[in-house]
Fold each of these.
Amino acid sequence: MTSALHPPVILVAERSLSADYACVFEGILAGMQTSFIPRLIETRLLAPPLPVSPEGRALRAPLGLRRIETALRSPGGLGSDEVVCTTPEALPRLLGPWVKIVAISSGDPLGFAMSNTTTSAFNPGQLYPRLFTRELLASLTPARERWGFKIVFGGPGAWQWFREPQDPFADRIDHFFEGYFEAEGPAFFQDLLNGRSRPRRVRAEGSAGPDVRPLLGPATLGAVECSRGCGFGCGFCVMADIPMFHFEPDLILADLRTNVASGQPAALSTSEDFFRYRGQGPRVNPEAVLDLVGRMRQIPNLDFMQIDHANVRSVLQFSPKDLATIRRQLPGAESSKYLWVNLGVETLNGPLLNQICPGKIGSPAAEEWPHMVDEAVNRLLEAGFFPVVSLILGLPGETSDDPRKARDWLRRWRHRPLTVFPIFHEPPGPLPADPPFTLAQMTRDHLSLFRECYETNFRWIPRLFWDNQRLAGVPIGRRLLYQILGRAEVLLWRSKFMALGCMKVRAKSRDPGRAR
């Protein structure tokens, strides 16, 4: 069928991003699966397809694509029919001799994201984000050869192609765009549209925050940006050197209204540190955060607001009363039993963390870091939040005592309502001299920590999932399917831990020197 749309610019994300997730944990679960999970389960249950218009326009699109679309359609730019967000399924009906650029977004095109390298190490098969990226590029190759349009690859995972420059699929990409789009991207696209030569790799610096305009279309998950960047210098984060930029409340609220008007009653507030909103450097601004959540609550038909990341240092600058007020004022909070927030602990080794993340701890002595973590976790729990703690295994300079200390810390907290996710160290950018952490490097202490973390998670994640999906309006039948799948996942993970434990015991008995 010939489309009524003849756009010169098409924006599309690989299939794991182009999905109609009801809540962010659905997206996390789908994005970490490998082809070991049957494709039908992945593409129909875990990552259901996005709705599209008859001519192929995505009715909702990932937030990053919506930002690009809005930037390209700024006054004097492209028209609404000249830049179109679509899905991999609908893409073929938009292709033709009129197309000049197909821009692809992916967060993990080669499977190097830290959370995914961790789960894929335990699971056979190819990561679905990697598989879907290859399928999308392969499907575009004949049309590219026929009509001569340019393929531009961007998104949070664009850097991964330069970790493996010999990947054969890299040859199917004409240009790579890294970084935020709004400041440099429109001129780059205009040059391509006009046939001007541009470098194959373009790296935009900074947050491009002052150039951001309100969204012109709804984003998946009802996602809105509160802030961009971080600037704490962590060696494992792509936001390490980008100073945090905070958006004005009016822009955030406008984006929320756009999402709610599209029929999405649940929203996701994205930031590297929600509690640092409109602060100065690492200093927080409690009044600004309280004002923002109060204004969010006033938006009609916004039934639920999920926040994402928090920094230990930021949480500790809020009084228990202010934290409880924020929790209470967030839309839908009164109906949520498990309003989670990701707390980046990374390691209990404060001096090591100070070397890798010079801005994360701040003025207290690095030796105080475990006490800071305890206090932050306790304050969040007392305020009614559900902490989702992240730990990184295999950080450069990690000592043999670190996994044992982390395990002892977990045992003190595991009976409280929280989860702890251990992930393998995988720094972005070119392969460092210190190789990324792998399953082969995992010691028995690492495995013990990993297993105990997941036993804690097996207790709480099903409840969190059920609660989040309920608030997002997921039908009970689909929620029950997720619970059944979750029980099967628990059995698989336990069998993997048992098998790996036996392997480690045999390896140590053969050669004790192999233990790290």
Amino acid sequence: MELKSGFSRYYVYSLPTNYGKNVSQQLGLKGVNIDEDSSGLSIVTLSGMAQLGDASYIPLITINNLFQEVANITHLRGSHSIKIGADLRRRQTDPFQSPTARGQFSFDANLTNDPSGAVAGSGNPAASLLLGFPASTTRSKYLVNPGLRNWETAAYLQDDWRVTRRLTLNLGVRYDYYGPNTEVANRISNVDLVKGKIIIAGRDGVSSSAGVLPDRRNFAPRFGFAATISKGTVLRGGYGINFVPNMIASSMALRNPPFVSLYTVTATPLMPLNRLADGLPPPVATDPARPTGSLTPVAFAGSTPYVHQYNLTLQREVGAGFVATASYAAALGHRQYIFNGSVNVNQPDPGPGAIQPRRPYYSLWPDVAAISVAAPWYNSNYHSLQTTLERRFHEGFTALATYTWAHSIDDQTVIANNRKGERGNSFLDLRHRFTLMTNYELPFAKGAKGFRARLVQGWRVNAVVVLSTGIPFSIGNAASRANTGAGDRPNLIGDPFSGFTQSVFRWFNTAAFATQPLYTFGNVGRNTMHAPGRRSLDMSVHREFKPIERMTMQFRWEAFNLTNTPPFGAPGGAFGSTSFGVISSAGLPRNMQVALKLLF
């Protein structure tokens, strides 16, 4: 039997660059800098251009306490090794984080376009900024310091069974329970979209978890095997389900009125509704009976995301000290929550006229813009062929070469009203990747002695080679045409990968895209393009000397990106902007360093 008890504390105090400075006030923005949480510079975004201002979601001040009790029993019986265990955890999470305490002013080209539509793309987001006409203005400020609490429990049974000398089976089952969050003073609230009202924990019969139900269905079977097929050949495989708790991020923290101050103004493509010079009104607790701005409900179902994982691996000795491995590995995600946590269910369908009256929940909450629901919206699947060729250190040489072909697809929704167009490459879809790592001890003067031996023996060379394709990105409109208050994408009318001369000024065929008709979604899918890949060679040479018995001197010369190959960033993906298709950033060039270290 093994019994464990533990406590850990994790403390985050992350502050923006201009924390404590009233930078927005100094620049003439009214009503922004009212306390330390809102100090600094407001976020100003321009379509297709660099963002100004301090980042969103900071200051981030979080204290996490974890109390844990673990019990395991291992029982050996014949060819079986049976293990039974349980795990109990109590989490105390105190996160304070406002999404946009300083406010955010977003500008696009719509409000400086030719209003007749005769000249497409005639506007400019910088011109809209100079005129002071934001496409949208938002502020979401947290008013309380919450103390979230929840329980986690787990139990498992596993049997490692040595069936024969050549076959071992691993059989098991695990149960996980991740309780819903509660708050020490019931300072959390949720949105009941069916009844059309905001519910507050501990009031009017609402549960302490603000209506979020526990998920008690998390049973996870596991199976694995290892079989020796012949001398030097092994076949392994396995399957299992893994439940993954959701992070207690802003979208999952039940931050809704009356514990937040929310403010949103969204202009139409032809009519500004406010000016930058107006600044922001004083933040006050938003009334739950008449909310404004944006709401962030959490689905009552409280489902726990889970992943099916399985693999089949063949490993073989191939001579000269090399071992080759080939694996098929897959992961299928279910009940997944959107990466940023939520989907706006209050986004109107494309159409003319003012945006706000066309929102689905306008009749209930006429002053609410986004209703970003955190719910198990999407599924994902990942399939891969993973190969390695390894030579462990022998006769002064070791090497490891890997090649992976993989494809990751999901239907993570970005445009809520266009979900059919959202299934596509995952943002982690790295299709091809090759790596080579070597370490070679140079065979100079092996039989030498004396001063010559000290000078030339023991030198080692290391090298790392990485070749990979790029990660995907989406093409979007610099100025949206659907008139939904959110982004959209243009139409694809040609082949973006042919019919042009590729350069950093035109990385793909920009003529393959065209403006879609007004008040419609374009037909371009999500993450259909890939950024430039990576080609890099890092190398080092090092040697250790022993001037005396108890002292070691180490010399190292290291070169990163030795070939000085430009590691290009992704090209501009905002259709209609001057940066569309243009690569304007790159990673570090060749970098070398020399070091001398004394160890004693």
